[in-house]
Write a structure and sequence with these properties.
The protein is mainly beta. It has helices at 5-9, 55-58, and strands spanning 13-23, 31-36, 43-47, 62-66, 72-74, 77-79, 82-83, 85-88, 91-94. The chain has one domain (10-94): Nucleic acid-binding proteins (OB fold (Dihydrolipoamide Acetyltransferase, E2P), Beta Barrel), CATH 2.40.50.140. The two termini are 22 Å apart.
Length: 108
């Protein structure tokens, strides 16, 4: 399936810095993160990367996010975006910039 360039431009892909992270109770896969996307307050984003990453190792890291997804409730928690990650037989692989970038910087 292909999408048009106009459709692709609708996605807000941004750099976000993890300011807090913890496991979601009752799940070995989900992490609850507070993410600075350059806005007034951090957003809560729930991600299924908990089998590959310990929450404390993510704090302070810059990751790539889709910032304009509709909020979604996952295990009773609202997620206000999506972390971008690749995946292989060992699980998810988070994507990070190769040098420091300000939170909220847009991908182009």
């Amino acid at each position: 399936m292909t999408i048009s360039y106009d459709e692709w431009q609708k996605m807000e892909l941004k750099i976000g810095q993890i300011v807090a992270a913890e496991r979601v109770e009752g799940s070995d896969k989900l992490l609850k993160m507070q993410v600075d996307l350059g806005e007034e307050t951090p957003r809560q984003i729930i991600a299924g990367i908990g089998k590959a990453y310990e929450p404390e190792t993510l704090i302070g890291r810059e990751l790539l996010f889709i910032a304009n997804l509709e909020p979604r409730t996952i295990m009773g928690l609202e997620s206000q975006g999506m972390v971008l990650a690749a995946s292989d037989e060992q699980g998810p692989i988070i994507l990070t910039p190769d040098r420091p970038v300000a939170p909220g910087a847009a991908l182009k």
